[in-house]
Design brief:
The chain is an alpha/beta fold and 208 residues long. It is 36% helix and 26% strand. It has 2 domains: 89 residues, Rossmann fold, CATH 3.40.50.150; 75 residues, no CATH class.
């Protein structure tokens, strides 16, 4: 990194709140993994925190280019050997997906921000990056059969759709079907604080 480049570190209160419950689950499910691709690293907070506490992992950050300054700032400050500079990744662009393979992937609070078509593309391309039996962990709010799990999630969904019509909380059943089409099987659907879920998928076929 350029030492003369000004730091543009951004802070997310949500990342601060949810990092420990997520870490508790990643410590279990990523205990035997080595290379993790984070999709949508955002501010960079999660990458640094998880890499600090899971030193056996090599954590690869990624996001659209506009988010790179903050990710790089967090990485520059932390100076960790097991977290890598961000890749430019727009999930809908096939040529931006890494050619390297990973035995795990993680994304937090992205599915309700992406357009549904982008969620579908993420699952297709991510499955191709995962090694056989590799894990994909998704954190965030979800619906079941179209029903919200709380009034606060319903309010959140309304605010998202007011911001942009393509955003909104997704149905777990629809995510699971898309994942199955890409050879990803849902292993765990875990309850998390603040009406969130943690979904753990595993790549079980070579169909992609």
């Amino acid at each position: 990194m350029n030492p003369n480049k000004p730091l543009l570190k951004q802070f997310s209160a949500a990342c601060e709140r949810n990092r420990d419950p997520i870490l508790a689950q990643l410590s279990i499910h990523f205990s035997h993994t080595q290379r993790v691709l984070e999709i949508g690293s955002g501010t960079g907070q999660h990458a640094v925190y998880f890499a600090q506490h899971l030193p056996h992992l090599m954590w690869q950050t990624s996001d659209r280019i506009a988010y790179h300054p903050s990710i790089e700032a967090w990485l520059e400050e932390a100076k960790l050997r097991n977290v890598l500079p961000p890749l430019e990744l727009d999930v809908a662009q096939p040529d931006q997906w890494p050619t390297a393979s990973f035995d795990a992937a993680f994304t937090a609070n992205t599915c309700h921000i992406m357009a549904w078509e982008e969620v579908a593309q993420m699952l297709v391309h991510l499955a191709r990056c995962l090694e056989e039996l590799g894990l994909f962990v998704i954190y965030g709010p979800f619906k079941y059969s179209g029903a919200f799990t709380s009034d606060s999630n319903a309010d959140f969904d309304h605010s998202l759709r007011q911001q942009a019509s393509h955003m909104g909380i997704r149905d777990i059943e629809q995510i699971t079907l898309l994942a199955q089409d890409s050879g990803l099987t849902l292993l765990h659907d875990l309850d998390m604080p603040a009406n969130n879920r943690l979904l753990v998928f595993q790549k079980t076929t070579n169909k992609t």
